[in-house]
Request: fold
Amino acid sequence: MAGDSARPTRAKSGSRRRRRSRRLTVIVVLLLLLGAVGTWFVLGLRGAADSAALTLAQDPATAPVDVLAAPRLLRAGEPFDLKSVQGELTSLGYRRVTTIPRDPGEFRARGNVIEIYRRRYAGALGEVDAAFVAVRVADGRVERLAGARGESVRAVTLEPVKLGSFRGDRLQDRKPLPLSGFPTRFVAAVLSAEDPRFLDHHGLDWRGMVRAARDNLTGGDKLQGASTITQQVLKNRVVGTQRTLARKLEEVALAPLVESRVGKERLLTIYLNEVYLGQQGAVSVVGFPAASLFYFGKDLADLDLPEMAMLAGLIASPGRFDPRRHPAAALQRRNWALARMATTGAITTAEREAASKTKIETAPAHGNNDASGDLLDAVHRELVDRGWEPRPGIQPASVHTTIDAELQREARLALDRTLDELERDDPKRAPLQGAVVVLAPSTGDILAMVGGREGIRGGFHRALDGQRQPGSAFKPFVALAALRTRGMGPATQLDDAPLSVPTRQGDWTPENFDHQYRGMVSLRRALEESLNVPMARVAIETGAEEIVRTAHQAGIESSLPATYSLALGTGEVTPRELAVAYGTLASLGVRREPSLIRNVDAMEGDVAVSLQSQPLADRVFDPADCFLVLDMLTGVVERGTGRGMQSVLGGRRVAAKTGSTQDGRDAWFVMVSGSAVVVAWVGRDDGKPARLTGGSAALPVVRRLVQATADRLLAPLPDAPAGIVPVELCNETGMRAGSKCPEQVIEMFREGQEPELCKVHLSFWRKLFKRR
Reply:
């Protein structure tokens, strides 16, 4: 019986051993699996950390390329408009103050004096230091410039106006600096507000995480959060901003590993330069250097303690604490940041108390100049032509242009207001379009360029690409060709009578605009009154090929038809080409290649960008011939089709020419002075009749521009060159006037080509002698 009872006991024992063996096997397998997973996780985490470190070692190529106007030069005797300068300073984010400016980025205007504390800026020839200047104005001109101690200053430039930026797909305003470029106290403000133990922890702030959890549970200040600067950099640059548990766990797991690989200095530099701090229209304000200019109109180095604390407090919620939109909330947040700085020992209690009592004063809000898109297109085109593609980069870059910011602004306003007025007067004209080019003939610099009404990027650029018939605006080059090759002059007599010229297409019968004929007229009068028939006779005598050759030498690049009708402007040109050609007249025969770009301040790797140089000036015409053409064109304003300009000239002489085409499709007006060539075109893009004339549609554009900026556009015309002599003529015969000639006029001649003495109006004795 005993043996029988022992068998089940041994069976049960064996069963337990087998079960223990199976459990042990399972445990071993699980441990092996866990080990494998753990090894895989650690290796994967290390790989992710290595990948993140590589990402953080590279700076993003998102810093914009800013396009800057030419800096305004202040010098005794130069034109100065107080209202315009204040507008430019405001557009730059300068802050108007009621006491003498003490910090860069401030100005005060009182009476006829404006005091400006200019900020540092990168000029075309290098860095320009901050400086104080007081400008006293009298009769619209600079009377005296004084420095900070009241000493006289010969000349000073103001910070250039930003015309726009090339930003690429990411619309960011970002001006990164190395860590050494951030003031120590400012860095302390940021660390106090966002990560007080940044220098001590290893990527994660466990005490901060516990505190944040406690505050969230008890309804405390959730804005303090628990993310370290390392975590925030990882969130923005590596793992993404999605609010998921997996994303947060990845961020927490990577933080210590990444910080050990990258280092705190690099992480802090990234954070200071890339944290989001507000919105400027469609453009994000990223990084503290850009935010400092955006909110206070100052460089970081020029901020005071309250302003530093304001920026540091913005990080948690730039929209909620925007000092312009929510000043009360911003003030409370700023004082919170000051208190944090005192708690961490960054400032003393006394400094906190004093700073907390100050008001928040921001610079005026200034958006991006969306109306300058067509100008940016023109700048981009020239940059590419000269060998450089303007793309956002790792470092900020600047393109220094020749544009006069005031002229650019007023040219656009003049065009827009004139087109609105023309469409109101005759709605059937709509939609009208236009273009304006202002060029400095002495340098070839383009001072203003408007390519269309909208001014958007990527649109059709009428100043550069709008090939239209110039009409009578082409006639000065017909006259120039005749002076050069046929010895004609202003007093040359032409027959204004019906004309018919056989051609392969049939008879060509040009007519004057008013369908009237005047008999014999001078070349001067033909230009002044824009008479077609006499100018057609000039073309026939001179030859179409010679006219084409002269126009191309002057600066017109478009293909022109070698036909007699070219004398009436039947070829097609762009406003820019016409400005260059008239600029050659204005510089008395020196053709200069037009340019929008002075210099580029940019780096490609460690190499500074260098643009291909522009062609040098080239003398293409005799100065005497160009002077005679210009002198004839002064009569267009004094007596001819451009008389509508007289009201804004203040008695100053300019040369000008109107241009109109068949059925009023195109209207042109060109004005030439010693300092500028201004070309305006108005018409419809589809070329349909619009009942326009140069005098009624394009001249008002130039008149408005001159009225707003007369002193910048109306320098005297060049003096007569050697070989030109004034002669008194008999107005009836066109011969050299004698004492008995009833009416006398002054006309310009090449020396040696003066006419003979008038033989009609002789004295009694000369008549008697002549009879004998």
DSSP finds 22 helices and 31 strands in the chain. The first helix runs from residue 2 to 57. Confidence is low (pLDDT under 50) at residues 1-6, 220-224, 764-772.
